Amino acid sequence: MKAGIIGVTGYGGLELFRLLSAHPEIDELFVFSSSKAGQELSNEVPHLYQIFNTKLRSIEQLDPGRLDVLFCSAPSGVSSELLPPLTQKNLKIIDLAGDFRINDADTYRKWYRKEPPPAPLADNAVYGLTEWNREQVKKGELIANPGCYPTATLLGLLPLLKEGILNPSSLVIDAKSGISGAGASPQSATHFSKANDSFSIYKINEHQHIPEIEQTIKTIANVDTNITFTTHLVPMTRGIMATMYAELAAGVNSQSIKEIYHECYGKKRFVRIFNEKTNLFTKQVYGSNYCDLTYAVDERTNRITVVSVIDNLIKGAAGQAVQNMNVMFDLDESEGLNQLPMFP
Ligand SMILES: NC(=O)C1=CN([C@@H]2O[C@H](COP(=O)(O)OP(=O)(O)OC[C@H]3O[C@@H](n4cnc5c(N)ncnc54)[C@H](OP(=O)(O)O)[C@@H]3O)[C@@H](O)[C@H]2O)C=CC1
Ligand SMILES: CC(=O)N[C@@H](CCC(=O)OP(=O)(O)O)C(=O)O
């Protein structure tokens, strides 16, 4: 198969390059840059020096007819303009940005403060939360790969919401991310001397992933929610931990929660259910496509705490994108994704 990557010099794009260059079904990989066309990829990223002699091509040189699959890992707002002229029969596209995730144009405008993508294409996009939308992904032509925080959050909450055992108006999600979640472009908040040895909260009640999470809870679990969702920056390179709190319906106990999770994810390759109250940490999934989950039922408060950890660049971005590609091309879902987590 022939694959292309737009945005390969960014963090998500580089992880796509790493995974796809080792993928047994990919024989040719074309890489595109909007700002460094003509240069060697390894000049930009020395960790690839003398391993790959791959030239960055301009996006104008992208011939969609020569590719089977195209990954777009550019900042949100870019793919709305870039992708419509590139869509064509027999080309599958996987977009890592937020552009095609939100169904309602006004909701997109409000949270992203950008113009939404053109309607016919946006309407055909499939939300690529692989574990939950496998059948739609299989038939999809354009996949909106989920956001990193929504992946961690939704994998943790959907099984319980679908069973109707959480009070939806009580949902509180407290999420923390490593700094690579903010991308490769330097910003004040991610400057070493500000972020190191510190811990910060950001986008309180304004995070663009709020409508994505609420929309997916509605479409998959048919539950209306208004979530409280708060994000924090942690001075580590990778990883997301989402800690989620909700009131439990009467009569629900630890045993029933355990059964729901095992029933839902027992046969899913990339979601691992740990025993109740396991002390999860982000490094246990570092560099891998796993989402690890645990939970704790508090009979004193009648609340549940659900904890989810992922690597934001793998299950939260490039790994899930490759997982979606595998499903779309009828390959083994774990093809190219069998790396063990890196530890310590
Ligand atoms: N970082 C993360 O953990 C996650 C990121 N995402 C999403 O994935 C996408 C990529 O994120 P990330 O890799 O972190 O971002 P980066 O900022 O690290 O990289 C984005 C890349 O996009 C390219 N780019 C910039 N402007 C344009 C343009 N106008 N046209 C084409 N390409 C452009 C740049 O490469 P060049 O100048 O060479 O073209 C750049 O390297 C974003 O939409 C992000 O929101 C989703 C989940 C997790
Ligand atoms: C740490 C950090 O800054 N993370 C980013 C995640 C960005 C992302 O995944 O963006 P889209 O889903 O909108 O494409 C953020 O919180 O905005």
Automatic annotation (TrEMBL):
Enzyme Commission number, as recorded: 1.2.1.38
Keyword flag NADP: yes
Compartments it resides in: Cytoplasm
Pfam families (UniProt xref): Semialdhyde_dh, Semialdhyde_dhC_1
Keyword Oxidoreductase found: yes
GO molecular function: N-acetyl-gamma-glutamyl-phosphate reductase activity
Top-rank taxon: Bacteria
Stored SMART domains: Semialdhyde_dh
Catalyzed reaction equations: N-acetyl-L-glutamate 5-semialdehyde + phosphate + NADP(+) = N-acetyl-L-glutamyl 5-phosphate + NADPH + H(+)
InterPro entries in the record: AGPR (IPR050085), AGPR_AS (IPR023013), AGPR_dimerisation_dom (IPR058924), AGPR_type-1 (IPR000706), NAD(P)-bd_dom_sf (IPR036291), Semialdehyde_DH_NAD-bd (IPR000534)
Keywords for this protein: Amino-acid biosynthesis, Arginine biosynthesis, Cytoplasm, NADP, Oxidoreductase
Active site (record annotation): 148
Pathway the protein contributes to: Amino-acid biosynthesis; L-arginine biosynthesis; N(2)-acetyl-L-ornithine from L-glutamate: step 3/4
SUPFAM superfamilies: Glyceraldehyde-3-phosphate dehydrogenase-like, C-terminal domain (SSF55347), NAD(P)-binding Rossmann-fold domains (SSF51735)
Domain called Semialdehyde dehydrogenase NAD-binding: residue spans: 2-140
Role this protein plays: Catalyzes the NADPH-dependent reduction of N-acetyl-5-glutamyl phosphate to yield N-acetyl-L-glutamate 5-semialdehyde.
Family designation: Belongs to the NAGSA dehydrogenase family. Type 1 subfamily.
Official protein name in the record: N-acetyl-gamma-glutamyl-phosphate reductase
